[in-house]
């Protein structure tokens, strides 16, 4: 039986509890399409002196939903990517957030790229599924507020917009939180190697080596644009109002208002 897009999403992003002990690990958690991939690249390029790529980044900071087998191969303490909604068994978290207005646009193209929805689905139809919490298990608001209201003692919030505007400062905050020894020259090298141009180039070169991308659409890249304010090209005034109304608690808590 053919799966619909919600079933496909659930089959890739397992929401169940992990079986391993993660008490000494750091999780990088975000609602999907919030900039978590770029932050992983920045950290990986810092560790590898600017020599990381998609394969090496996935091996260094594996995605618990997609590459759980890689998590098993790394000895703690590990850095692990996840999209988990709030849970009380993770002790150290870097929580990445992005303005929901841009998240919905980026998520639309992600869903088309991986054939979760048809390319014929109008953006407006996808938008209504998104604000109803039918694309991901739960809404952007519930994900954000769930973590902000129940954050563990080791909890760092990184706004995607701040990371874009002052990459060096935000990366320094992240590296300090991870207890890394700070090397300013390596920070600059990591930022240069993690440019969207370089990530886009390597995505094309490594497509066949990334199992998840093997059957995805070539005309839409995973690393698409990463710009702030892309929603201005898609959202109507009414859509903006609906997003504000449905996500006002999270937007206010994160100073997006």
Major sheet details = 4 strands, parallel
Structural domains: how many: 1
**Overall SS class:** alpha/beta
User: Would you tell me the overall average pLDDT?
Assistant: 86
Strand fraction band?
Answer: 5-15%
User: What is the CATH H-level superfamily?
Assistant: P-loop containing nucleotide triphosphate hydrolases
- One letter per element, helices H and strands E, the order comes to HEHHHEEHHHEHHHHHH
**Assigned CATH class:** Alpha Beta
Q: What is the CATH architecture descriptor?
A: 3-Layer(aba) Sandwich
CATH topology: Rossmann fold
Assembly type of the chains comes to single chain
Which geometry do the CA atoms define?
globular
Q: Percent of residues in helical segments?
A: 40-55%
Question: Spans of 5+ residues with little confidence (pLDDT < 50)?
Answer: 1-18
DSSP strand tally: 4
Description:
With 257 residues, this protein is α/β, with parallel strands linked by helices. The chain contains 13 helices and four strands. It has helices at 5-12, 36-47, 54-60, 68-73, 100-113, 123-131, 140-149, 160-165, 167-177, 184-193, 196-205, 237-246, 248-253; strands at 26-30, 79-82, 92-97, 154-159. It has a four-stranded parallel β-sheet, with helices on both faces. Helix 2 packs across helix 3 (54-60) and helix 2 packs across helix 10. The longest helix is centred in the middle third of the chain and has 14 residues, at 100-113. Residues 1-18 have low confidence and may be disordered.
Write the layout of secondary structure elements.
Blueprint: H1 5-12, E1 26-30, H2 36-47, H3 54-60, H4 68-73, E2 79-82, E3 92-97, H5 100-113, H6 123-131, H7 140-149, E4 154-159, H8 160-165, H9 167-177, H10 184-193, H11 196-205, H12 237-246, H13 248-253
Parallel strand pairs: 1-2, 1-3, 3-4
